[in-house]
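Task: fold both queries, return tokens.
Query 1:
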Amino acid sequence: MSSFRFLRILFVSLLLAFVSGCGESPCPDGQARTNAGECSDIGADDDDAGDDDDAGDDDDDTGDDDDDTGDDDDDDDTADDDDSGDDDDTGDDDDDDDDDDEPPFWHVNATFTMTVAPGSLGDGDDSASAGARDRVPTGDDDDSWEPEPQQVTAEYTFSYYGLVDGIPTDLYCDQRIDATGEAVFGPDLVPDAGCNNCTGYITMDPTTVNDVSDPGSNPTDCDPLELNDLGFQLLDPQGGEPVDVFNSSFGMHVLTPLAEGGVGDFLSMALVDADAMHTLGLYLAQGVGASPPGFSAADMQATLDVDGLELSHAGYVDNVTGSYADHTGLNEMAASAGGSSTWLGFWQISRDPAENTHDAADMNGVYGGQMIWWPALFQ
């Protein structure tokens, strides 16, 4: 089993422990559970005629207070307080498919399609050689240069699945969110010197984030209003307790800045190109227990080979206070970009060589991204 699958199963298993052990198994047809917790035939008393369990008495039959139609205390019949329409069946507050039982769990997968516009090619130092990305003057007097930003457009797809016994069920809906931003490529571009090994950096403009889901034209799309009304909670993978409660969809939450009530993790991405990742021996996932580290450049390429794709870059999210990475303790599962970097492995980014022949440390053209950590939520 790959370390990713092990971690994902571990992640969800710990969450499901939060709600394990709830409820009792139903009695066979024709029987109901007594106050003592045992199954008994409906309408049958527990002794002999004339005792304290027969017709006219106070424990079993019609007109009494414990068993039959019209009474107020039994566990068996219609119109009482324990059957259909009462507090134990569908639509009530105690059973499956209702409004008050074990919280519905959700599994979310995120992918993106990203187009990076070409930048100006040149040597970056005004020499006669060509091939490196041009840099633009900083405006100071020391002849330093900054990389020329390239425009980025992206569509993120957040796929919501139900989660039963740690296994994702059928797709509930896809949430599609558009955003635009900028990309720069070269060394030492991540703010605050946070990623010395990184070879690129992407930022998305939060003012351009737009949920374009349209269930009217695409039946699998989420209804944005319905999704926001669900009210999700993010769970601590170690203890199963809520660590982040938000009145929005997960997709909008990770694309909204911290200062505006979101977590903002998907608004920026540090990049390490595939060749650098291989040379540096980086992984996206730590080893856990006896499981070795996972998602090396070679690991990911082997997976992508099946679909004829090429690994382009690894993408990293920043583990800042209040972020999704921080809330979930991602630093205990994801590997960093090297050294003391706070940027944690999160995205596998690839290109289709039949459609995009740009094989370089920078990006140009269309790319696809896949998150390797699937969050579990409940509402």
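Query 1 returned. Query 2:
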Amino acid sequence: MVPSVTHDRGIIQMIPALRSDNDRMPAWAGRWAFMLLAAYVLILPIAGTTALRNLLFFSLTALTAWAIARWRAGLYLPFAIPWLLYLAVALFSLLHAVAPRYSVSEIKHEILFGIVATLIASTWIRRIDDFERIALVLVAGSAGMGCWAIGQSIRDWTSNAAFDPARRGALLSGVGDYSTYIIVVVPFLLGLLWRRRHSRCASAAFAIILLLNLVGAVLSHNRAVFPALIAETAVMGFIGLRASGDWKRWRGTAAGGAVFAAVIAALFLYQIVSRSDANPDTDTLNRDPRITIWHSAIDNIRNSPWTGAGFGREVFSHVSPRMLQTSIQFWHAHNVVLNKGVQMGIPGMLAFLLLLMAAARAVWLPRGTGLDDSRAGILSACGIALIVGLLVKNMTDDFFVRDQGYMTWVLLGGLASSLHALGGARAKQ
């Protein structure tokens, strides 16, 4: 029995242990935190897992509260003031909410849970090593999602199943959610590919996973995913070149990035043509109904510029019922910034953009800071690219909610916290 116990302990020791800023934290608590957070990252993009997501989320919340009470773990909430300002504007919009109960529920799910997700990640992830492990879990999960999306598409093709946007995407996650998930994954996939470029096995594995994500993007039939991927690639290339300052060193990488962007542009054109051929009445760019939706959203903002009509995407269908009568897909403004304007007026739009700017500032490593750690620099670029990519992707829709919102805040919170701790450690040296 002794060898078995020793073997079991050896396996347990292999599980990474997240650590807060308190050395009194036992290793078992950190291991539980890693397992719960890793499982949460894997489960979030999968449809039909609400109960399991909630179990993991509230288990992490309880473990964090226990760590604070028992071992006095230090709480750290990046971009706290913008979060609170965003919350205050959302609460103020309730004064003129057209559906108060719905808006209160949405504030709870989108803002309060988003703050808790940021707080959990930033409290437990205080080292670049730990964040990179979570990023690896995210990337590994995307490989499974890509394989499932391909298998599902083959099954639908062989059975002559009709195209259903709600079913498309990996594990029935839907076109919009799955394509947004790809936007979340790809910056960290590119960063890890660059980090492991000298290892043939690792670089080949990441290249295959990248291919799976691109194929998944095509199979999603979503168009906006490709301009967002191009934007993310350009941002990472620009930040890398700016940090290095050596154009000759980056010529090969820039050429590779240009080829990758050209491939994505070609896929974008293919998606446009295939969508137009399949449904010429609505899927051609000059007949896109979003133009009409945006005009209606702008009119709503003009009618209530300071308070909006209450928090939550469905508010648009209450203030523009004629759009919903045109199509059941027109229940929100199909633009993340305009949605915030309809919900909270101009203050809501500004508060949302300020929150994203604060998140970008929290993960930004300016030149001359002395933070020359290659992982820190690469992951910082990944965080900036993620924010830009999400904005580009959600200019024609709004999937920066629920699972993709929580995933984003976990990643940005953990990255901001680990970079903040790294800067503090360097300052003490």
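Both queries returned. Flag for query 2: Residues 1-8 have pLDDT under 50 and may be disordered.
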